[in-house]
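Chapter summary example.
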Amino acid sequence: MSKILAIDDDSIIRTLLSNSLSKAGYDVITASDGETGLAKAAEEKPDIVITDYQMPGISGLDVITELKKTQPGLPVILLTAHGDVALTIKSIQVGAYDFIEKPIQIQEVLEIIKNGLEISRQSQSLTETITPEIRKVIEENQLVGKTPVMREIFKNVGRISINKVNVLITGETGTGKELIARLIHFSGVTREHPMVVVNCSALNETVLENELFGYEAGAFPNAQTGRKGKFEQAAEGTIFLDDIADLSEAMQTRLLRVIQEMEIEKPGAPAPIPLTARIIASTSKDLEALVRAGKFREELYYRLKVFTIALPPLRSRKDDIDELVKHLVQKLNRKLNKRIVKIGDGVLEMLNYHSWPGNVRELENTLMQAMIMTRSDVLEKEHLVLNTNNDKDQAESDDKILIPIAAIEKVHIQKVLDRLNWNKLEASRILDITRPTLNAKIDKYGLRATSGKKRRKAEDK
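The structure predicted for these 461 residues follows.
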């Protein structure tokens, strides 16, 4: 019978774990604080440990750190009601097997315990702490989310940040691929070294080659001075290759050679320069499809995707929108010198209804525009300007009826005005409202004509 040690200062949680895990066939030992838990771990030699994060005395992270000194192969699960991205990453770095947020879902706990018991050894933990400076960078570049898929992504960031394996980040435009790259870089072994970003789609082949590899003085005509390439600038840190799918065939070959040989051939240099940086690449395109079509080198693809992180679109994790809005409002308050501390009625409902084709980036831009227009400490829904083209089908779909009437009204008025080339008089007649009421609703919802010609007609009527 496997033995489980549960450490939590909350007697209700201890009882819940003890009863549930005992019924599942485990031998359960409990402790009400970290010090007692460590003593029982030394005495009882449990097969797995569940520890709370915030407790009197030492924290759950301290418990994990101490256990790893004496029992490095012991799976430890961190339990907390105060989860955030930095804590998730740090818990994995110090050696936690997994991270569970309260309220506890027993079935989830049982599944994690089952899997944890099958793990023979843990990844080596880091001893360094996240400094206040690094924490600030992480917070400013933070991706927010508590949905299962995002929690798993943050756990993976913690796992891969403690080494320098190459990483491929996939996802639609605006999902936060560069933010994940920065999170990986600043959370682990590369945090004290440079992070260099290269947009592979923004530069032509010649310029990109010079950017990546640099050159020595005299390497070619007009090269009067030398230049360090991005690989060299990254040193022991990270080079982030954004839009990797847009590399030309020749540049794919050059990059593959760099990864294979672990060295950089710098034009004019007497000898190759060792590659010491970690490569993180990103793409919004289907690289596997490009490989099958012969447009991307298969070997390079597999060299880049030593570890893959697939970011979901915002429309598939709408449970994160409320938290994202709060996080982005705080971030934009600092950027815009605003003090918006309240979210008006209907705002979150309207944002949850929108399909967000531009993902988190579109959400941030929408909030920024609304906050600029806001003159109080409340963000109201009339300040929101959304592209409703992707929402029209939702407004008419039977399985999307649980939405605010205002969202349907906004889509319908926009549709009528567009169909009538913004003839407000005719639109008022069809909508059965007065012209002043129509104008008020246009202002309320931030509706706009879709072309200059239409806009002039709208303003004339």
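To summarize the output: The CA atoms of residues 152 and 216 lie 44 Å apart.
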